[in-house]
């Protein structure tokens, strides 16, 4: 059985939006965990939710602090190589599509 394509649009129903958020948050944390295990890397996730007062962190607050401190200790040039915002990401994708 195949899954139907999900329409990416704002979910107006509050209960449905909250349920979708919880499912997708769980899936995102699972993906970060799998990436960390399969590739042998240190990874973390910080998820802010409108439904909770505190952000959810994975793997633990101490683990997140360790990953962030390692990142901050990198030279600034190395840090900027690994940082992407929405605008630069889209520019890279457009440039890559133009090359093909």
UniProtKB/TrEMBL annotation:
Per UniProt, the keywords (alphabetical) are:
DNA-binding, Nucleus, Transcription, Transcription regulation
Alphabetically, the GO molecular function entries are: DNA-binding transcription factor activity, RNA polymerase II-specific; protein dimerization activity; RNA polymerase II cis-regulatory region sequence-specific DNA binding
What residue stretches are annotated with the MADS-box domain?
1-49
Q: Name one GO cellular component term.
A: nucleus
InterPro entries documented for this protein: SRF-like_MADS-box (IPR033897), TF_MADSbox (IPR002100), TF_MADSbox_sf (IPR036879)
State the Pfam families in the record: SRF-TF (PF00319)
One biological-process term from Gene Ontology?
Answer: positive regulation of transcription by RNA polymerase II
Its localization reads: Nucleus
Chief localisation class: nucleus
Q: What name goes with this protein?
A: Agamous-like MADS-box protein agl80
**Whose protein is this, by species?**
Turnera subulata
């Amino acid at each position: 059985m195949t899954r139907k394509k999900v329409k990416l649009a704002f979910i107006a129903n509050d209960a449905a939006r909250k349920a979708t958020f919880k499912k997708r948050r769980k899936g995102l944390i699972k993906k970060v965990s799998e990436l960390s295990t399969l590739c042998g890397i240190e990874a973390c996730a910080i998820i802010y939710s409108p439904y909770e007062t505190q952000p959810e962190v994975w793997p633990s607050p101490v683990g997140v602090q360790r990953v962030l401190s390692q990142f901050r200790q990198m030279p600034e040039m190395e840090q900027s190589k690994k940082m992407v915002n929405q605008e630069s990401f889209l520019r890279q994708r457009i440039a890559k599509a133009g090359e093909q």
